[in-house]
Design brief:
Largest sheet of chain A: 2 strands, antiparallel
Number of domains of chain B: 1
Distance between the termini of chain B: 31 Å
Strand order of the largest sheet of chain A: 1-2
Oligomer: heterodimer
Strand order of the largest sheet of chain B: 1-2
Order of helices and strands of chain B: HHEEHHHHHHHHHH
Largest sheet of chain B: 2 strands, antiparallel
Shape of chain B: globular
Number of domains of chain A: 1
């Protein structure tokens, strides 16, 4: 259904595709400017940055494709009281609110990001070793789980902060810090962004796995295991929080 | 004139009331203005440390701290969102009743803009001070530089509002082009010196930046206030450029607005 609706607005699609290219170009101009002034920042060269930029774009595109539409709909339902219709269905509420919506044209962001990352990777190692890409995809799965959990928590906050339309800005504001490798921050901030707010697992660490360069790895070879540990904790926490919110939900009639 | 003042006063009261009502939301918007310069500060000071003299394009760690502190201040005080909102106002029909009033809609937009800035000051000023305490920037500005710098920040705010409003008027011809806001903002990021000081731009981008108004909206007020513009003549010339772009913007608004309204009435009948 999403694809049919969209085909009707060809001009829209055209503009949005152009905007995807504009966004990725802006990231590239940024990297060009940075590396006009230096050759590497704490072990990260221009090609490393390129890989991270691609990962960032992929993540941003993926979030906007699958997660944002669902969380926005959840928040709308909470505000309008229409969440009742979801709760009355015989399907698990969390499952339903998580998969209802999806925005197909954001795929351009994901594909562009992937292309940029793979190009950066190739320029670094002159091959794209399957093992590295495999580990990368595994890390991205962990990242997806963490992202889903974070966003579910944001959506759940809407049960209490009903009037704040733009709660999702909390995510985008933090995500802004993931645009560049976390090595640019002081050590304390890096730890904050790895274990308290798992931003590093969404951006820097998967990118490092794609680069596969021993000099730049933050967590070393145990990273995938730690990532899945963090992912599992996030998912359990978010699910619990969502169900807690549902219990507190008073519905349209209250 | 008194009618305009009274109407504007009413718009301000409504604007401030609205902003206070939506304080949760506007705080979340305002936070981006703090995060982005902070992240860029971390990036550029890390880049500066890779050189022996600890500098990139003549800015050391302390100077970057001062520059991005100013980017927080200038970025905040030049906030304008008409480029994003105009398309929505037209498509939803909200613009129609505004056009029926005996006062230009731009005055309401201005009141809303000023209300946002006033109400958020309470929150952002402590954040700026916190940033300065943590980062310890190097402020080199002397009294006249800071004084002229303050004037230039205010001029920059006026510039971004007026020029932004002109760009927003594109929506009267093509309400679906919501992307204009993003492009306008993105161009301002690089060519205005928000991503990096203009001195750090590759020469090609630097030459383009010299021709556009954005450098006068962001880089100039920042550099002036932190003491990087040493000659009074240069500072005054910069203020003159800001005024010139502002005047150009106002003239442009006048011309575009009559064309826009004609178009609106022609299309909607």
């Amino acid at each position: 259904m999403s694809v049919q609706n969209l085909a009707a607005y060809r001009f829209d699609l055209f503009v949005r595709t152009i905007m995807s290219f504009v966004h990725i170009s802006a990231e590239l101009v940024g990297i060009w400017t940075i590396f006009h002034n230096t050759t590497n920042i704490r072990g990260w060269t221009a090609w490393h940055f390129l890989v991270l930029a691609g990962v960032y774009r992929m993540v941003a595109g993926g979030i906007r494709m699958f997660i944002v539409p669902n969380v926005r709909k959840l928040m709308e339902d909470i505000r309008n009281g229409t969440l009742d219709f979801v709760l009355l269905k015989p399907v698990n509420a969390q499952f339903l609110v998580s998969i209802r919506e999806f925005v197909v044209w954001r795929l351009t962001d994901v594909l562009l990001g992937l292309a940029v990352s793979l190009y950066g990777c190739w320029r670094l190692t002159h091959t794209i070793p399957f093992q590295t890409v495999g580990v990368f995809f595994v890390m991205m799965i962990a990242a997806c789980i963490i992202l889903y959990s974070l966003w579910l928590c944001l959506g759940t906050l809407c049960f209490w902060f009903v009037r704040i339309d733009n709660i999702e800005m909390v995510f985008w504001n933090v995500f802004e810090a993931g645009r560049y490798p976390i090595v640019i921050y002081p050590q304390k901030v890096q730890t904050l962004l790895t274990f308290i707010i798992p931003l590093a697992f969404i951006t820097t660490i998967p990118a490092e796995k794609l680069i596969g360069d021993a000099n730049t790895l933050t967590l070393g070879p145990s990273a995938p295991f730690i990532a899945f540990g963090v992912a599992a904790i996030s998912l359990i926490g978010a699910t619990w929080f969502f169900n807690f919110g549902i219990r507190r939900y008073s519905g349209a009639s209250a | 004139m008194t009618h305009l003042m009274r109407a504007f006063g009413a718009f301000m009261r409504v604007g401030i009331g609205t902003m206070l009502q939506y304080r949760g939301e506007i705080l979340l918007w305002a936070i981006w203005g703090l995060v982005n310069p902070a992240v860029l500060y971390a990036l550029w000071s890390a880049a500066a440390q890779t050189h022996e003299n600890g500098e990139v394009a003549g800015y050391g760690r302390g100077e970057f701290g001062a520059y991005f502190f100013m980017m927080m201040v200038v970025g905040h005080l030049t906030t304008a969102w008409d480029t994003y909102e105009m398309g929505y106002l037209i498509r939803s029909g909200t613009m129609s009743p505004k056009l029926l009033r005996p006062i230009l809609p731009i005055w309401e937009a201005l009141a809303s803009n000023l209300s946002y800035k006033l109400v958020t000051l309470v929150f952002v000023v402590p954040m700026w001070i916190l940033f300065a305490l943590i980062v310890r920037p190097t402020f080199d500005g002397n009294a006249w530089q800071v004084a002229l710098g303050t004037i230039s920040v205010l001029l920059a705010g006026a510039m971004n509002f007026v020029l932004g409003y002109c760009v927003a008027l594109i929506a009267f011809w093509s309400p679906k082009l919501d992307a204009t806001g993003e492009v306008f903002f993105g161009v301002g990021m690089f060519f205005g010196g928000r991503f990096s000081p203009l001195a750090a731009l590759p020469p090609l981008l630097g030459s383009i930046a010299a021709l556009l108004p954005f450098r006068w909206m962001f880089a100039f007020p920042a550099d002036l206030t932190i003491g990087r513009i040493d000659s009074l003549t240069e500072a005054l010339a910069g203020l003159a450029m800001q005024t010139a772009w502002l005047v150009l913007g106002i003239i442009g608004f006048r011309l575009l607005w009559s064309a826009a309204v004609k178009r609106y009435t022609a299309v909607s009948g």
